[in-house]
Every structure is written in structure tokens, then in C-alpha cells.
Amino acid sequence: MKHLLTTQGLSKDDAILLLDTSAQMATTQSRENKKLPTLRGRTVVNLFYEDSTRTRISFETAAKRLSADVINFSAKGSSVSKGESLKDTALTLHAMGADAVVVRHSASGAAHQLAHAGWLDAGVLNAGDGMHQHPTQALLDAFTIRRHLVGNVGEDGRGTDTSAGADLSGLRVAIVGDVLHSRVARSNVYLLRTLGAEVTLVAPPTLVPVGVETWPCRVSYHLDETLEQWQPDAVMMLRVQRERMSGGSGSFFPSPMEYSRKFGFDARRLAVLPDHSIVMHPGPMNRGLEISAAAADHPRSVIVEQVANGVAVRMAALYLLLSGTDETSTDERNTL
Amino acid sequence: MNPGSRMPESSAPLSTDPSTDPSIAAARTVLGEADIARALTRIAHEIVERNKGAADLLLLGIPTRGVQLARRLAERLTQIEPAFDGEYGTLDVTMYRDDLRRQPTRAVGQTVLPGSLDGTIDDKVVVLVDDVLFSGRTIRAALDALNDLGRPRVVQLAALVDRGHRELPIRADYVGKNLPTSRSERVRVRLADVDGGVDAVVISAASTTQASTTQPSMTQPSAGENGGAR
């Protein structure tokens, strides 16, 4: 594995290897000494053209726990505000000897371009590109689902994870909300399907993307119907991405209150689900819009654990991308 | 008897004379099932003798085959020392290796400490158990891994086979069999509970030098073949 750009086309073996490695990384994170020497001397650049709190901090923590050096780059306060192109930034990073670049960009395909344009030889991790993909988020969601619904870690998530090597076959996952703008939904649909789970997208028709019929999932316009009749094992709420709704929230649904009533997750809807089911949200949450405070803070909500698992999953991704033979790149770099 | 003094007879690379080995490519069994069982029984006794009992003793096997050897040693120790609780752990050293960038990516294994320890190895007598002691680099990685888990009182090393060619100042405290080998040969430990078949230690002449670089893969974690020590 040289890059992690998308979950579409990620093989099942690689996906399970990522999850298993994440599980091992997670156990090291419960120790007193959380730091591993594995990536000592390697440099990871966080290249963030979009605002992010948890993804950037999560990647930074993961890299530091593996002893890599981390350089944070955000578009604000850098030469990007002077008009520097992605290519020139990439060439700069190449000259500085970055071993891995974690990139978030508002343009779909930016990570792919960075990885394949020949500008730099570092491994590229996509941390979200436009409305396209966010693979580590999907991996941490799959990891969280596997721990709870296959590995039987218990409600508090502290039990022993017994799910090594397992996939998610037979599990039902409902992904609810702003599918149109969501790279999290796209990444999850493909990854969960690869791992054998069944996925249903639930959204108002205005927030379902064109071409969704080619995705390996079902689509429903009715949340209550899906919860009652399909009985999903996990419900993943998506954030309503108001910053991507050009005309304000009014252009995709009549009012926040109506959205909340028809597609918001609350304690009443939670009660309809089977007892083992879990509630997820990639964050940041709009409390009161897509999820009520009672549901977000419910014992069956694993939202905080998702953040913790994010560090383990990103450690696994960095490990698998950065260890292993990498002779050519070092040689080239030495000549610079 | 001081087991620590039993170093491999020779660290010279040509300790096996090719003329005594009729078929270069053919595998030769050096230890059979009974030999391995006897060696483990002796090592168990040596561990008790050296440590004057089994108090605070913790066996940690290095995956893959070291774990099974640790389990067998633990079984024997419970027979010798009824006070011993029969527990053993697993110590994965993958993330501490010094050759991560020179090998294909290795899958990370599990580190499991016996539940009774409460996650700490402080002040324990740790006996690391591995199948083949070769360059010593695996053991160096294991010492670093231990360091991150706590501060044991003593660390000792038991290896089923010591094949020489050390690249680091490391020696085993308990050795099943000292096996003079040439660098190009492959020493493989086959255990019934890992590989199927019968227990055996097999030497074969590696057909090419790439034998040591090709075998660890993403899907097949670690060790076993070739001493697993590179």
C-alpha cells in the first residue's frame, strides 16, 4: 500500500489488515507509555486546505505516537493565501523530504492528483477531498462497528476485542442525513459493502446525489420506516453541511425544524432499534438538528469512542504506508 | 552448570563443512519431536534452578513459534513447580524492529500479558522465549518492547535453537540446541500446533540468498522460517 486515497476499490484483505492493525495499535494506546518508536525519523506533513479539528489533531496524534515528526500546514497563514498552487506546494514538500502527506482539500480528487501527478514521492493519505472520499473516517467507523457488534467489547467499549480477522457480514448500517455533501457517506458505503455489511442511505430526496443508483446500497426517503422495518444494527448520522449549501439551509429543506422532525435522531427513534444497536456520528454534531442531545449522550452512542478509535486507525494507516521497502525515494531525496 | 556459558561453538561462518553434507538443497532434520520435548523439559528445569523457584516468573513468547514454545514451557513448569500459575504471555516486537524500511510491510501481531498481571511487568523475572536465535536483532527489538511495558527485575532469554552469527552483543540464557550453521543455510522450526505435522527443526541450504528477504509478507506475519531473526 503506497497511498490511501479512497475506499472504493480497497480490497477486502487490505481493509481487514487495516482493521486488525488498528486493533493492535488501540491496545498500545491503553498503556502508560503510549509512544512507539516505529516511524522514528520519518516526516509526516498535515496539509490542510480546509478547516478541521478532529481529523488534523487525530492524524497529528497518530504520527507522534509512532515517533514520526509532524509538520502542520494550513492554508490560512501560508503562501496559499498569496496564490501558491497545489503543485508548487507539493514540490516544496518534496524538497523538504516529506515521507507522507496527509491532505484535506475542498476539491474532489485533490488527493489523487497529489499522489499521481509525479510532484512528490511521498505516500498520500486522503483526509477528505471535497464531496468525494474520507477513507480513514470510514475505516474508523468500520473499526468501531466491528469492535461493538462483532468483537463484543460491551457497552462501555472496555471489553476485549475478539474480532481479529473478522468482517462485517450480515450487519445492517443505516446512514442518515446529508448524503449529497458527505464524503463520509461515500467512503462508508463502499468500505462497509466490501466488508460484507448491508447499507441503506436515508435522506430527503433533495440531499440524495445524482447517480446514487450505481452505489452498492439501498436508498430510503423515510427514517421511521427504515428504523422500524429494517432494524439496523448501527445508525450513522451525518452532519448537515450548511457551509456547502450555497443558498443557506433553506434551499435543500424547508426549515431546520422540519428536517429535525423527519430526519433527526432522538431518544424516541433510538427506542425503536434493537437493543444491541449503536449510534454513530462523524462529528462535529449539530445538536438539535440531525441528532438530539439525549441520543448523542445516550450509553449506546459511540461518538466519543469513534474519536479515540480514529487515532488507532490513523496509526495503522501511517504504519502500513510508511513501513516496508522504500528504497527509491530515499535515494532520490539524498540527491536533492 | 552455567547455561550462559554455552555459546555456539564457533561464530565462524563456515562451521558446516559442505563435504559432509551430501545433498546441498535437501532439508536435514536436526531435532525430532522427542529431542524438542527433552530440550524443553531441560530448559524448564534450568529456569527453575537458575531462579531458585518460579516466583515472579513470567514467560513471554515472541510470535509466532515462540508463543507455542512458551506455552509448552509453562506446562512443564507447572509440573515441576506447583506454585507456578501456568500463565504465559505474548510479546510482539514488529513495531520495534530496526529493519522495517528494508523489508516488505509486516503485519503487526498481538502483545498479550497474562490477566493476573494487571498490565504491568514491573519487578517480574521475564523469560523471553523464541524459536531460533540468529542475528539477535529480534531480541534487541524485544528488549525495547519490554522497556515500554514496564521495568522487569531480570530479563532472560530462552531459545530452542542457537544458530550463531550474532550481529549484536546478545546471548541466550537457556538454549535447546547449539546448531553450527553457515549464513546461507535456513533453519526452520516446525511445530505441530503452528505448522501441522510433527515437531522438527530442519536445516536446508538456501537455494538463493533472497530467501531471507522474500519470505515475510503482509499476510504471513513474522518469524519461524530462517530463524525469524533478521
From TrEMBL, chain A:
Pathway, per record: Pyrimidine metabolism; UMP biosynthesis via de novo pathway; (S)-dihydroorotate from bicarbonate: step 2/3
Domain Aspartate/ornithine carbamoyltransferase Asp/Orn-binding, first and last residues per copy: 170-321
Keyword Translocase: no
Gene: pyrB
UniProt catalytic activity: carbamoyl phosphate + L-aspartate = N-carbamoyl-L-aspartate + phosphate + H(+)
Binding-site residues, L-aspartate: 82, 183, 239
Domain of life: Bacteria
Organismal lineage: Bacteria, Bacillati, Actinomycetota, Actinomycetes, Micrococcales
Record's protein name: Aspartate carbamoyltransferase
Subunit-structure text: Heterododecamer (2C3:3R2) of six catalytic PyrB chains organized as two trimers (C3), and six regulatory PyrI chains organized as three dimers (R2).
Membrane-spanning parts: none
Swiss-Prot/TrEMBL keywords: Pyrimidine biosynthesis, Transferase
EC number(s) from the headed UniProt entry: 2.1.3.2
NCBIfam families, alphabetized: asp_carb_tr (TIGR00670), PRK00856.1 (NF002032)
Residues the record lists as binding carbamoyl phosphate: 54-55, 104, 134, 137, 283-284
InterPro entries on file: Asp/Orn_carbamoyltranf_P-bd, Asp/Orn_carbamoylTrfase, Asp/Orn_carbamoylTrfase_sf, Asp_carbamoyltransf, Asp_carbamoyltransf_Asp/Orn-bd
A Pfam family this chain is assigned to: OTCace_N
Role description: Catalyzes the condensation of carbamoyl phosphate and aspartate to form carbamoyl aspartate and inorganic phosphate, the committed step in the de novo pyrimidine nucleotide biosynthesis pathway.
Organism of origin: Promicromonospora iranensis
Transferase as UniProt keyword: yes
Enzyme class, spelled out: transferase
Family membership: Belongs to the aspartate/ornithine carbamoyltransferase superfamily. ATCase family.
Domain Aspartate/ornithine carbamoyltransferase carbamoyl-P binding: 2-146
From TrEMBL, chain B:
Biased composition (Polar residues): 12-22
Reaction equations catalysed: UMP + diphosphate = 5-phospho-alpha-D-ribose 1-diphosphate + uracil
First-level EC class: transferase
Entry annotated with the keyword Transcription: yes
Annotated keywords: Glycosyltransferase, Transcription, Transcription regulation, Transferase
Taxonomic superkingdom: Bacteria
Positions of short motif PRPP-binding: 126-138
Entries under Gene3D superfamilies matching the protein: 3.40.50.2020
Purpose: Regulates the transcription of the pyrimidine nucleotide (pyr) operon in response to exogenous pyrimidines. Also displays a weak uracil phosphoribosyltransferase activity which is not physiologically significant.
HAMAP family linked: PyrR (MF_01219)
Protein name in the entry: Bifunctional protein PyrR
